């Protein structure tokens, strides 16, 4: 049978030839770890280890799915986000590194981690944002909502697996938290234009379309959130929204038009404008 080292080399080339060139080596490693039921350190430690017949069969099955375009996260059933190992299914978006920018923005703006606060995560999906924040701000009371019952099942399972206490509610944006105010409201909402050609490429082909698109300009849900969040933020509270690389200016204008102050922007690791955030004034003006 083939060794770990030789399989990684040949698989990397297969993935490249199939046009999966973003991270072929990492993809190969994750698929092989899944088949062997080991972590990546094992691959580096035992490169000459040969696979059993069953392990090789399992690996080929996973590789075949990847060559057909199926996302790695759906094949192995998990994705790491903010150091947390999350269950992922086709019912949720696959957590992406860009979204960690939102977590960073909240933590930079928040007070001492030991201070209590109330946080609302809108459109939680797999629960990635809410659970990452809870892991960093254990004293905060975090509520996470989603309109998808299937997504909430995934989020609740992740919370249970990680032993993190988050309240999950089925809700169309703010409908289930009608009279509640929060210190922070965070969201990675749908923000892709309905006719964006990228919807027919890569992993997004396998993700729920309702979690991706938001009207002709991609801003329909962001407008709703900016408008409705105002009455759910405590005076001095902050709203954080992830958006597309080309949406920073319109999002900024929407925030200012609603009356938010200290409108700010944070870039992701690729230096793209990724998260806009702003504060509701301490005064009672609306």
Short description:
The chain is α/β, with parallel strands linked by helices and 286 residues long. Helix content is 37%, strand content 19%.
Task: Walk me through the structure.
The chain is α/β, with parallel strands linked by helices and 286 residues long. It has 10 helices and 9 strands. It has helices at 4-17, 24-36, 40-45, 53-67, 72-76, 100-109, 128-136, 149-162, 220-229, 248-258; strands at residues 78-81, 84-87, 118-122, 141-146, 167-170, 182-187, 233-242, 261-267, 273-279. The longest helix has 15 residues, at 53-67.
* Number of DSSP E strands: 9
- Amount of helix: 25-40%
Largest sheet, if any?
Answer: 7 strands, mixed
Order of helices and strands: HHHHHEEHEHEHEEHEHEE
Strand order of the largest sheet: 5-4-3-6-7-9-8
Total helical segments: 10
Indicate the low-confidence ranges by residue numbers: none
Kindly provide the radius of gyration, computed on alpha-carbon positions and rounded to a whole number of angstroms.
21 Å
